[in-house]
Amino acid sequence: MRRRARLAAGRKGRAARSAAWERRAARALIALEGVDRAGKSTQGRRLVEALRAEGTRRPHLLFPADRTTEIGQLISSYLVREKNLEDHTIHLLFSANRWEHVPMMKEKLHQGVTIVVDRYAFSGVAFTSAKGNFCLDWCKQPDVGLPKPDLILFLQLSPEAAAERGNFGRERYETSSFQEKVLQSFYCLMEDKTLNWKKVDASKSIEDLHREIKSLAEETMQEVQNKPLGELWK
């Protein structure tokens, strides 16, 4: 009798611990967007580190941190001006780079892992449409059906302020005039009310911005718990 009681108590304890773990492991897909040098990579790393420190289940950071694939390496060589590629081609390569990570992303998200992406399909659309010969609808098409972010954090920073930050101008698209066009494309994308866009002031200190981003991320992780993963632009 006592043995049964101990076994029952043990099962209840394990169930309670499992439920507590699932609450802590509430997953979300979070995208950081903005013009170049807005601080997305820094804030993405800090968010992942903070979530990991608080026990969130193995958060991951993707794009452009992982350019180890053949497609990713080709993109990198294009951005640093080692290779020239036709505009349609590079747009589709960026999309292909996202799609080749989708199986892993879905697996992790279904396991309760939060994923933070440093740029996503929105950057692909904004940068290509800023070139002037591409409409937003065409630019979106290759990414239709990607995992839909639960939160898109837009790091608001003027191109003039971005140009004053270190290493601006090192990559192909880093000119103030082009970044202004990119910014306007982002504003058009933010008109889509089916997506959860949140603007944050990227001119704040790194620490203040981190606190705001972390708060928004944690709030979203709780809100989307047990909700199915959506598909982008569908």
Automatic annotation (TrEMBL):
The GO annotation for biological process reads: dTDP biosynthetic process; dTTP biosynthetic process; dUDP biosynthetic process
Tell me, what is one Gene Ontology molecular-function annotation carried by this entry? nucleoside diphosphate kinase activity
GO CC, one annotated term: cytosol
Coiled-coil residue windows: 199-226
Domain annotation Thymidylate kinase-like: ranges: 32-213
Provide the family line: Belongs to the thymidylate kinase family.
What is this protein identified as? Thymidylate kinase
Q: Please report the organism this UniProt entry assigns to the protein.
A: Malurus cyaneus samueli
